[in-house]
Amino acid sequence: MSGFVAIWPGQASAYSGQxxxxxxxxxxxxxxxxxxxxxxxxxxxxxxxxxxxxxxxxPVNQRVGLEISWALIPFVLILVFFVWSTDLxxxxxxxxxxALEIDVIAKQWMWKFQHPGGQREIDExxxxxxxxxxxxxxxxxxIHSLFIPALRIKQDLVPGRYTSLWFTADKPGSYALACAEFxxxxxxxxxxxxxxxTPTDYSAWLEQSTVDSSxxxxxxALFRSRGCSGCHGPSATVHAPSLEGLxxxxxxxxxGQVVTADEQYLRDSILLPQSQIAAGYPHIMPTxxxxxxxxxxxxxxxxxxxxxxxxxxx
Length: 314
Fold this sequence. Notes:
Blueprint: H1 14-47, H2 64-92, E1 100-107, E2 110-114, E3 120-122, E4 124-128, E5 133-139, E6 144-148, E7 153-157, E8 163-167, E9 173-179, E10 191-197, H3 199-208, H4 215-225, H5 229-232, E11 250-252, E12 258-260, H6 263-271, H7 294-306
Parallel strand pairs: 1-5, 4-10
Antiparallel strand pairs: 1-2, 2-3, 5-8, 6-7, 6-9, 9-10, 11-12
Helix pairs in contact: 1-2, 4-7
């Protein structure tokens, strides 16, 4: 916690510093605009109180320039803050292409984090300092909201869709994380720790974490055990899209639309296969809704992502 104000969380990124600067500047602006109003209200209340002899003959003031300026100047200042905050918003929602990707699954009442190497964490996530990190998040039951005060970021997790969040933490330390959306009786206990480590310490932490296989390798095992390879594998006799080079590529649909094969499209293709049919392929894909968990779907996505750049989709 900051030593300046006990209730104000410390900063773990440059972005959090920018947000604090914006909040401080906006607070000063609001005080500067509203203080004269309240001060003059007090002055006039005293000056013209009942029984006080005072000159109440005030002729109409025709200073048009003054009238325009006290409306125009606040408007321009507010406009500056609108542009400033919009720039911060777009910065927060522009994902870097080379970010470390960590999957997040929320459910009542815990957070599960999965690293690309297969390391899993409950209510705790380790990240390297100075490296962009992208969180791909899903909810297994109700709406949750991941809030990391030290980064000044928050993002809802909505059942049935993926949301993402990215950041670059640059100050090693241990910080709080919490759910910012009321999600049930034990909502207040749905917290955890956000731990920023130096790159060297993070590499050591990954090495000492015992895992049998990476997330993509676990997805490859699921791909075979669930029978997906029977249609999407290289030796398949069924006319189904190949997964080689599929992730991130444009996919023409039979209704004429062209979509990008991102996480959401791939998830819907697995759980809701009839919602977006790829052009030129029969409607034979069964649904895996209620068959695969969110965690298993994310493993399959990690496997499909690992096949990106292996050749164009067929």
